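Example (one chain per record):
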Amino acid sequence: MLYLVRVEMERVQPKNASMKCRSPIRTVLVDGNQECLARLEKWIGTLHDLELVGTAGSGVEALDQCRLFRPDLVIMDVTLPVMSGYEATVRIKEAGQCPTVILMSFFHLDEVYGKDDPSKADALLNKDALYEELIPTVTRLFPDRWECREVTRSIET
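Predicted structure:
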């Protein structure tokens, strides 16, 4: 018998949550690459705690989407046409809309900006690890609306 161990995330009810169904986290997704945007949109559509309310292909469009939909969360690429994700984040935060902003990039953000992120984004994720890091990051940023824990399962093959 060969056993493989798989680690996955399991949803659990937060300790302070009522038995009512929590509303999904209203999300705007921003990426200048249409193929990447489509893949992320499809994947986020499978996550029941996130509700995709808008998409944008530039920083300017991101500002418009935030004004229009008032999201809880913006997941935005750093490299965007017209206005960078950094500048868009600053403007979104200055406008008082105050959604949580997660910036993403293929570049190693810590090496470029370290802890001095000029945008004051709530999180910086590398796109290479986005599918592994997004759920734990959202869990940390929205503990009262989405709580997960790691579960180890053994599978017989």
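Caption: Residues 130-141 form the longest helix (12 residues).
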